[in-house]
User: What shape does this take?
Amino acid sequence: MSLVSRGPADRAEAPELDPAVVRRLRDAVGDDAVFTSREDRDDYRDPYWYVEDRSYDSSAVVYPTSTEQVQEIVRIANDVRIPVWTSSQGRNYGYGGPSPRVKGSILISFRRMNRVLEINEKLAYAVVEPGVRWLDLYDAIEAGGHDLMVSVPDLGWGSVIGNTLDSGVTYLPLGMDYQAPTGMEVVLADGSLLRTGMGALPNSQSWHVYKRGLGPVLDPLFVQSNLGIVTRMGYWLMRKPEAYAPLYLTVPKDSQLEQAIDITRELRLQGVIRGVPVMQNTITLASHFPEILGKMRAHEGTLSEEQLQEIADSTGVGRWGQRTAVWGDRAVVEHHVARIKEAWSAIEGSRVDEYGLYTKENWGDIHHFLEKVQAGIPNLDMLEGRPDDIGHIGFSPVVPLEGTKVREVVNLLKRIAEDEVGVNFVAGLCTISERSTVLVSGLNFSTVDEESWRTAFDAVKHMVREAAKLGYGEYRAHLDFMDEAAEQYSFGDHAYRRFVERIKDAVDPNGILSPGRHGIWPQASRNR
Amino acid sequence: MSLVSRGPADRAEAPELDPAVVRRLRDAVGDDAVFTSREDRDDYRDPYWYVEDRSYDSSAVVYPTSTEQVQEIVRIANDVRIPVWTSSQGRNYGYGGPSPRVKGSILISFRRMNRVLEINEKLAYAVVEPGVRWLDLYDAIEAGGHDLMVSVPDLGWGSVIGNTLDSGVTYLPLGMDYQAPTGMEVVLADGSLLRTGMGALPNSQSWHVYKRGLGPVLDPLFVQSNLGIVTRMGYWLMRKPEAYAPLYLTVPKDSQLEQAIDITRELRLQGVIRGVPVMQNTITLASHFPEILGKMRAHEGTLSEEQLQEIADSTGVGRWGQRTAVWGDRAVVEHHVARIKEAWSAIEGSRVDEYGLYTKENWGDIHHFLEKVQAGIPNLDMLEGRPDDIGHIGFSPVVPLEGTKVREVVNLLKRIAEDEVGVNFVAGLCTISERSTVLVSGLNFSTVDEESWRTAFDAVKHMVREAAKLGYGEYRAHLDFMDEAAEQYSFGDHAYRRFVERIKDAVDPNGILSPGRHGIWPQASRNR
Assistant: This one.
């Protein structure tokens, strides 16, 4: 497999689905839940893709409402040997959205399978179907008056299960290392139904409260996977704390990045910071601070170091800015905020902005975007003002939480963005865990300009290859370079991929579940 | 498969290994690393088993010192179709120790493959080989002067990797839900070498700092598993806190168990307790408080409720006692200790014993067993005074952390212990996580008395079946009833087991890796 650049646009539509297959699908899920027209399919494709390209065109979109219907769809797919591609809400823009890797796949959308099946107040967890959005789960918690919070990502319209299965990010303490998801129900390729962990015990009392079972642990095998379709999942929730303090920490100069990373790591390892902070550079911060956007628009084209510094200084957001928070008893929160301020003061000229101390009394006053996400209040604030015809694509390597290593990767990606695309480097350390961070670097492109689209994807693929040479790998790849990203994980003559392929062939012999997802292809499609 | 009681003792030795196979093994690992005599094999069998029974007899014990040697042993096993059974230190007494499930298996012992490969001070993790014991890792950390602590179990002689791969317990905050293990190297059944997660990227910088990779996550698949042999693993460590406060919490009356559980759960969910507390009943507490043992010996046979209450009252340990601790900045520790005391005071007549507040200044004063484990200081204190010919066996279901559910299971197991075996119920809630606990119930038996041994195993198997009827399953089973325990996980006509069996057949077609481990058998051995 060669590592290719993005080719020219493929304008050919997916072949039409055999009417007999459409009939069977309608029998399975109902006439109102199968869509095959180009218009209907286009309604449910990735908006962050060149509009003329149909490389990832589906042949139908099917909306099951029950696990039984999903099982039936899978049986049909096996019969007719047409692959299915699953998405929950399909909001993973920048990664391919709901589009299938293989043209002509039948899309299974879970948008109509969206029940919150349980909220367990005592044991602090929820059980959801894949169509449940963060917004829905939050509403269900609030409607039930539960003393619980859910760890949410930046945008509330995505699916809890979908985000989890993409290894997506959330920002409250349970977001660290994806601790929230626990206990799954999975439709297998033969249409049978599996329950993981303690759920394999009939009438299990402990399905969603214990992360293992007896024998090998399967839940994580269904992450970024095409080995089964998750139709139900437990998700741990957090008791509402006595106090919550959202903070914004500035890094005035780019040269202070290393120092900021090292301080953050120590605060995490010492248990002072327990959530999932994010640290973004000036341009990315425009989504939080509209005043930056105004300043940026005053300049033409790419901004120079001096111009960036001027924006950072005049708006006060800094060259990097960290969103973080503390949760807990009031006395503990106050102590930890003081510790953060003290540690951060070592960064010359830096600032720690306190966005208030929230308790049950003033919880309703939470309004700013920086406050809402870490309070578990899902929202769509980041979408505001985003032009329709601008997509984005990113490369997101996992980097140890060490200043020098983060700097090494930032320098590499910055060079490629500036030299090959001629744009400013846009980056966020979007998941700061205790020992690692995911450095999300982004490139915007025009979805109506073929050249702009191709340049962006070529540059990102170049980033994938160059970072791998230094030992840094992607945490999650866009459809268009899943193969290239997976290709880098080649230790032992691709021992990892061969092992997963053997599992794939054993549990999905016809290769009908999401072929090609994250570089895993069924036997018939492999030609290495 | 029928659920059978323990049969009469099987006194037949394993068939002798073909000398040609012995020769090949010696060529692979050296003459001094292959043992076949009965005496040598018996030196390395489970001491908690009836001495006359050879159901789990091995044909050889092999001590590799490198990954390459392990690969070569696996290749030989494939050639000659003799299964291997892996153990690290083989200290999992009560679960079968190093003994193989299939008589005549070749034992691979990792006792000589015991290097601490790395201690990363900045990122707070270690990388170890499977023979590394808690004692060894602790020594390496101390010898290097690192500002780090390791989450340890009650006994320090076991293997870090061995304990992890059995889903074993450790007690510091990283022990919660097994958060410490991260990134593995695995010898596969065909002798090839796999690296999980970010380790699949050659020269990966992030192998041991990030819990996932690109594509399906494999690490947990090697827990309680026979799909590969883990020869190297990352293990997260904790920064030494400013302060550490070990505590002992009493529950004076058995009827207060539910209340104690519910209070503990709220303290956990509120983030006040962050480690892994243990709550034991009076008899089990004898291993911590020798004065109990003296009182017990003053009585003949089984103790009545009144006698138990008298011991609990006169020694002051209570009917249940919880070992817990708080770690963090001094101000936070003091606040959280006060919170625990306040919450616990709701239990009538209860007490919170503070075992001192330790900081860097007085760390050397930590001496009591209750203090050492939660300070990450491995020891063998619990072994003291244990008679040689007494073994123990337990049933350990996972129970949601709710008073009423814990009570339901305690009552069931107590009834079986008292009515069927005629002994006092011995129990510890040995892993109190945020939402679940593992209730370890134990039965002692004489390893030189066939009747005593058989009665104990029959009773435990009965516990397995009866608890399953209520929806509670075993977290880890002894060799002798792995099949019975796995049999309970039957949802979807055993969808879980069939799925794992399909993986097993695909990645180990000759079925040579630890056949039967936790109920997973290769194709040739299945006759359901």
User: Anything to note?
Assistant: Chain A has 14 helices and 19 strands. Chain A touches chain B through 104 residues (CB under 8 Å).
